[in-house]
């Protein structure tokens, strides 16, 4: 089978590990041919000047050159650039169709501006279209002031909502990350055919590191992490949607738990706030590390004890962060501080691999931290964490489910 995969991620080969590339490699392992339309933003074009990367006998990556979309603080310019990507993806899809007939088209969101490319392939070749809905646009944009339901920003919101509905309409299947995402989507898009909606979670091909006790201690020493504490680790973007203000409040409040120590790894718009915690006398229960290569970060996670999920309590739409998978593959229990829409914490608690609280309640957070300092509880939850990953969140399972849905289409 020939599969077309469309993404805003910038790929040059199949060697990197991500929720998308792990899935692509699983399709390849099953004998399918995958063509990847991979976006390259303007700032990266000098380092990425080849149009086609033939990466294996069963995969090629074709670049889609687009304006900058990420790391932009000017929301108006970002919105204009988003619209400018519409013809870019459409042209790339038409070029890809000249070389190959596609049976299945798989794509994530955002950007919603790929709908024209999806429509072109479906109209021309009749393939089955599968949307992996990661962000429910444009509702996510209401948070932080990017869009609004009042004034001129409402016009932008309505237009992006129109584009989102076009993408939903052209999709034969819409895979949502969790039940909360399905509820939110159907409540806000009541005209959407619910028969085309199913669960399609973030997935990973588990990465294993066998560290001895001495190796874990050596790794902690390498990064300046205490050897005798229970290490709560957070890795990834440090921005407003992650609720960094509450993260800071929670770390300060958790100083009373002597055994707990917090390690944050990453970068983002809110990193300066976290950096302030390390200045002067600083906090004695907190360490901030810069972003590091994925393999190095995931190896570090194996030397930690509890994974952290933070989501801003004011977020208007549910989220299911992929950073969860790095914790689960390392057999870590998780502590989730989330908004009222998201169910990542509730699912962790109900299935025995984590605890959760609201991300506006520092007292509840501290209570969870105290509970997580119990070694027997962590071991039991950590074992269940890995088991649940193997049962629900592997690339093999997700690819199999997509193929089964394709067979029914």
The shape is globular
Structural category: alpha/beta
What is the count of helical runs? 14
Oligomer: single chain
Unreliable runs, pLDDT <50, ≥5 residues? none
Q: Provide the β-strand percentage band.
A: 15-25%
Order of helices and strands: EHEEEHEHEHEHEHEHEHEHEHEHEHHH
Mean pLDDT: 89
Radius of gyration: 22 Å
Distance between the termini: 15 Å
Strand order of the largest sheet: 3-4-2-1-5-6-7-8
Helix content: 40-55%
The major beta sheet can be summarized as: 8 strands, mixed
Number of strand elements: 14
Helix-strand blueprint:
Elements: E1 2-7, H1 19-29, E2 33-41, E3 52-56, E4 59-66, H2 75-99, E5 104-109, H3 115-125, E6 128-133, H4 152-170, E7 173-176, H5 179-188, E8 197-199, H6 213-223, E9 230-237, H7 244-253, E10 260-267, H8 271-276, E11 286-289, H9 294-301, E12 306-310, H10 323-329, E13 334-338, H11 344-350, E14 354-358, H12 362-372, H13 375-392, H14 395-408
Parallel strand pairs: 1-2, 1-5, 2-4, 5-6, 6-7, 7-8, 9-10, 9-12, 10-11, 12-13, 13-14
Antiparallel strand pairs: 3-4
Report on this structure.
- The chain is α/β, with parallel strands linked by helices and 409 residues long.
- Helix content is 41%, strand content 20%.
- The protein contains 14 helices and 14 strands.
- It has helices spanning 19-29, 75-99, 115-125, 152-170, 179-188, 213-223, 244-253, 271-276, 294-301, 323-329, 344-350, 362-372, 375-392, 395-408; strands at residues 2-7, 33-41, 52-56, 59-66, 104-109, 128-133, 173-176, 197-199, 230-237, 260-267, 286-289, 306-310, 334-338, 354-358.
- The strands form two sheets. An eight-stranded mixed beta sheet has the order 3-4-2-1-5-6-7-8, sandwiched between helices. The chain has a six-stranded parallel beta sheet with strand order 11-10-9-12-13-14, sandwiched between helices.
- Helix 4 links the parallel strand 6 (128-133) and strand 7.
- The protein is globular.
